[in-house]
Fold:
Amino acid sequence: MRAVGQPIAVLGAGSFGTCLAMLCARENDVLLWARDEEVARTINREHRNPRYLSGIPLPGEVRATSDLEETLRGREMVVCAVPSHSVREVMQRAAPFLEPEGVLVSAVKGIEYETGMTMHQVLEDVLPHVHHPRIVCLSGPSFAIEIAQRLPTVVTLACREEAYAISVQATLSCPWFRCYSSQDVMGVEIGGALKNVIAIAVGIGDGQLQGFNSRAAMMTRGLAEITRLGVALGAERSTFLGLSGMGDLLLTCTGDLSRNRRVGLALGQGRDLADVLAGMGEVVEGIQTTRAACRLAERLGVDLPISQAVRQVIDGEVSPAEAGRLLMTRQLRSEAE
Structure:
């Protein structure tokens, strides 16, 4: 085994957590937390994840455990890559074991339905104040399988104390994984969360064979919608033209590896949402984010017509065809609105 640098913990043995563990293991000792003890045993025994990215061997520097305290003890950097609906529960359990001077990287994209909080807000809500300045949010166009295959990937790391983002930037960056730093945590998180909603919308249109004109319009007006909500929450408008905004939106709306796009395609083809989700095998973050974003926007008085149309489709209130008709026949207005 190679000499190791800093000890790193990765929480969540899904596809993204697994690929980030592989990335971190280039020069560091990595401990990967899996809820399922059998998954952890298989990773340690066979050096592969039996459920996600199973065809890609894991480096020996990646060890796994289902013991959360063991995972976190003495770790200088902790990467949270659990589904958004699990962040509060997992980090409440993790809080007693986090190193006070450690850096916490959130790789989770979503909005908590009950509170309207983004993931860094959830982390601040459950963790002692000492951890708050060291919360770094990772977002950008990044399919897990391509990171695991060492294909070129570029992301953004955001932290209000940018020095910590720069520290994580130095740890993660390599010839095939490049990180940029930012201080706009809210912008980076809103872009990463709502692009999943727009990807469902684009998929619905593509599933109905609505054409390339429709796809381009949906993505463009979707970006305007994401920006509108982000700015209302205090984000910088320019952030949404970057990797965590337009970049992630382009990838998720057009890449066939996108789970959110695939769900939209199936809905547009007339399939039942429950059946589609049952066959996915992984969390589709855009479903919960759609409902959460619409609820948050209503509270703030922000207009999200595309997101509302997606919510109506997934909640069975309108058909995909009717949702499209309603969007196309809305009151005419200035593009600046």
Notes: The first strand starts at residue 7 and ends at 11. Residues 7-183 form a domain with the Rossmann fold fold (CATH 3.40.50.720).
